[in-house]
Specification:
The protein is an alpha/beta fold and 417 residues long. Helix content is 62%, strand content 7%. The chain has 3 domains: 160 residues, no CATH class; 141 residues; 80 residues, Alpha-Beta Complex (Aldehyde Oxidoreductase, domain 3). It has a 5-stranded mixed sheet with strand order 1-8-4-6-2. A 3-stranded antiparallel sheet has the order 5-3-7. The radius of gyration is 28 Å and the shape is flat.
Length: 417
């Protein structure tokens, strides 16, 4: 259950309102800090510091931060719309969760709240001469923070919503999720090597919602299998679509009264997420390439760029990882399918780019790179995808010369004779 709450806290912390609220509370606390610190300020300090200027500074800060925040929000909305049209709607969540953008907007909002609370407190006479000195020092610190945020925001705007920048974000998210999975290929459990339906005493557990599996609370499942007579066999992984007639797990020796606890370990939502689902990142990258190859956009360069990024991500499948010591030796989970990963990425691109000779050649070269990594499963899956890509290209291409170029690329890659 702790792991489940940790998951929810991580998801909430990535929402824009969370940091904005946190910075707003911090702004109020900073403005009121002067009341607590004022008694410790020497009496002669207010005469040496022009603390009366704080009224004007707070006024300028309040009016400017409100305008900058409104303007920044309009830029964000425009960037999200551009990314939706030119990249893919599935990548918008990465833009919304960007920490730099959230920190910048939260700084603007927090500064506005700080200025507003400071002006109200000054108007009511809560601050004495010493309090004004503390407020003045805090205002200078806030101004420095705002300037730093503005400089970062200017740099951020240069790539916000652009195709290359959004694609790079998707690549980083897919790489991070895949590397995490490679460190724990069975989510901390043991590999599922048998069909649980054939095990004596196995009882299915059905989902009570319709949606995608977003997270699996392995510690909660492990807590139910402390006895040697208890075991759980997970049938789904994060990213799999489930519904009430589909078993999500099978249990042996666990009482039916624990079924609700078992179901609570599977977080099911309406959408897939990048965090625990490496196949989703690969799928979104393929969507970007497919959209670039559509007649409305007709951007083969982006498709070829995405193919290269896909090779970088999928190459992590071949990296040897240290043997995993199962944390939950009575919980069994399936591993990633290399064939499915390559199919998720290459099939849409090969289908939508079949009539583009440059894409056909790029696919053969990319699959050859993966096949040379030395992993047997990757080599078999890469060869299969190369053969399918060649068939699609030869069906869609009209010129014999284009046929020959793609086939020659397949021959050079070792996929055709």
């Amino acid at each position: 259950m702790v792991e489940r709450w940790k998951w929810f806290l991580i998801r909430i912390s990535k929402r824009p309102w969370f940091r904005a609220s946190l910075f707003s509370v911090l702004g109020v606390a900073t403005a009121l800090l002067a009341l607590a610190v004022a008694p410790y300020i020497p009496d002669d300090v207010p005469t040496k510091i022009g603390s009366d200027a704080v009224d004007n500074i707070l006024g300028v800060l309040a009016s400017s931060m409100l305008a900058v925040t409104t303007f920044s929000l309009s830029i964000m909305v425009a960037a999200y719309g551009s990314a939706t049209s030119n990249v893919t709607p599935r990548a918008i969540s990465l833009l919304v969760e960007d920490p730099t953008t959230q920190n910048t907007l939260s700084t603007f909002i927090g500064s506005f709240i700080f200025s507003l609370v400071g002006i109200i407190a000054l108007s009511t006479g809560l601050y004495g001469a010493e309090g004004r000195v503390v407020l003045f020092a805090a205002t200078i610190a806030v101004v420095i923070l705002v300037v730093y945020a503005l400089l970062r925001w200017i740099d951020q705007l240069s790539g916000l919503g652009r195709v290359a920048e959004t694609t790079a974000r998707v690549e980083r998210a897919a790489t991070r999720a895949l590397c995490q999975r490679m460190e724990q290929p069975y989510l901390g459990g043991c590999p599922l090597e048998v069909d649980p339906r054939a095990l004596p005493g196995a009882r299915p557990l059905y989902a009570d919602k319709v949606g995608f599996v977003q997270h699996i609370d392995m510690p909660a499942l492990g807590g139910l299998t402390r006895s040697e007579q208890h075991s759980i066999y997970i049938c789904v992984l994060p990213g799999i679509f489930v519904e009430p007639t589909q078993p999500i797990a099978w249990s042996i020796g666990i009482d039916e009264q624990c079924d609700d606890t078992l179901r609570d370990a599977f977080v099911i939502g309406a959408q897939r997420t990048f965090d625990r689902d490496p196949r989703f990142g690969i799928t979104v990258m393929a969507e970007i390439a497919s959209r670039a190859l559509s007649p409305a956009i007709n951007d083969q360069g982006t498709a070829i760029d995405v193919i290269g990024r896909g090779v970088r991500v999928l190459s992590h499948l071949s990296r040897p990882s240290p043997p995993e010591e199962p944390k939950f030796d009575r919980v069994f989970a399936p591993g990633l399918s290399v064939a499915d990963m390559l199919n998720d990425f290459f099939t849409p691109i090969a289908r939508d780019g079949a009539a583009v000779v440059e894409v056909g050649m790029g696919l053969q070269q990319a699959l050859a790179s993966l096949a040379r990594l030395g992993d047997a499963a990757i080599s078999v899956a890469a060869r299969r995808q190369a053969e399918l890509a060649l068939k699609r290209a030869e069906t869609a291409l009209t010129l014999p010369e284009d046929h020959q170029r793609v086939r020659q690329a397949a021959i050079d890659a070792g996929f055709a004779g």
